[in-house]
Write a structure and sequence with these properties.
Blueprint lengths: L7 E5 L2 E5 L8 H7 E5 L5 E6 L5 H12 L2 E4 H14 L7 H9 L3 E6 L2 E6 L2 E2 L7 H11 L2 H14 L5 E5 L2 H5 L5 E6 L2 H12 L8 H17 L12 E4 L5 H16 L2
Parallel strand pairs: 4-9, 4-10, 5-9, 10-11
Antiparallel strand pairs: 1-2, 2-3, 6-7, 7-8
The structure holds 2'-deoxycytidine-5'-monophosphate.
């Protein structure tokens, strides 16, 4: 049982208990009096947008785990589409080829321990979509209108009548413009490149920090300047600059803004 005012205490099925008051003498009865049971069968959407590699998925996963929400990594969907396009040499300038490819792409999420497991036509591609060939191509492919229309449709379906945390580039502006809470994340580009470099090194021993830095700069540029749903901060999004924050500190920052909603 978690102790502390406003903290999520327990969760079971559609109900969650939130600590309202910390008792000086926590007897069994007293603890029961201090806890508010809330119906989790609601439809709260937490939208997290921001630049590449600024910790969106770290925050989104931690938040979803703490609140018992469903986590959706929308970037993984665009990455899986990019992987399909790469493997099948789809010409991004050929509208008919793009439409045909989209018809043949079937994506599925399986969440285990709040880690994203994504399948592309029943093949587990969670690791492959993080490799450099996909990272180099994904911004171009995610800028294609038909690709976005299809992904947004699927994302909106996932958020219907469920509590979810979704991270991406257009979640608060296009996918869920009425999300109850929106965060816009940012961090120093050098710090972002170092974090991503450390993440990639174990599986890509030949990668250099410069290569990662350039890839991020290039993706930021493409994501913010593209015609279709460019990355931008929704007017009502809360800015979260995590350059100097630990993962725990950024989680607390977000929880302080989301938990009051659960109390109604
Ligand atoms: O979050 P990520 O780095 O895994 O995302 C990969 C790419 O997908 C990123 O360069 C931009 C694109 N993307 C997007 O256009 N819209 C989203 N909602 C999520 C990702």
């Amino acid at each position: 049982m978690v102790k502390g005012k406003g903290k999520l205490a327990v969760c079971s099925g559609q109900f969650a208990a939130i600590v309202l008051k910390v008792c000086p003498l926590p007897t069994e009865n007293c603890q029961l009096n201090c806890i508010l049971v809330v119906n989790m069968n609601t439809n709260i959407v937490v939208a997290i947008d921001g630049y590449s590699s600024c910790g969106k998925s770290t925050l989104a996963k931690a938040l979803a785990k703490k609140l018992h929400f469903i986590y959706v990594d929308s970037g993984a969907m665009y990455r899986a589409v990019a992987l399909y396009f790469l493997r099948h040499n789809v010409d991004v300038n050929d509208h008919a080829q793009v439409i045909e490819a989209l018809k043949n792409i079937h994506l599925n999420f399986h969440s285990r321990d709040y880690q994203t497991h994504i399948t592309l036509n029943d093949e587990e591609v969670s690791a492959e979509i993080r490799r450099m060939p996909v990272s180099d191509k994904v911004s171009t492919i995610s800028a294609i209108r038909d690709v976005r229309v299809e992904m947004v449709k699927q994302q909106q379906r996932m958020g219907r009548s469920k509590n979810i945390v979704m991270d991406g580039r257009d979640i608060g502006t296009v996918v869920f413009p009425h999300a109850q809470v929106k965060f816009f994340m940012t961090a120093d580009p050098k710090v972002r490149a170092e974090r991503r470099y450390k993440e990639l090194l174990p599986t890509n021993p030949n990668i250099t920090l410069e290569e990662v830095f350039e890839n991020l700069a290039h993706r930021d540029y493409q994501d913010t300047t593209r015609k279709e749903s460019p990355l931008r901060r929704a007017e009502d999004a809360i800015i979260l600059d995590n350059t100097d924050l630990t993962p725990d500190e950024q989680l607390q920052f977000a929880l302080d803004r989301v938990e009051p909603l659960l109390l109604g």
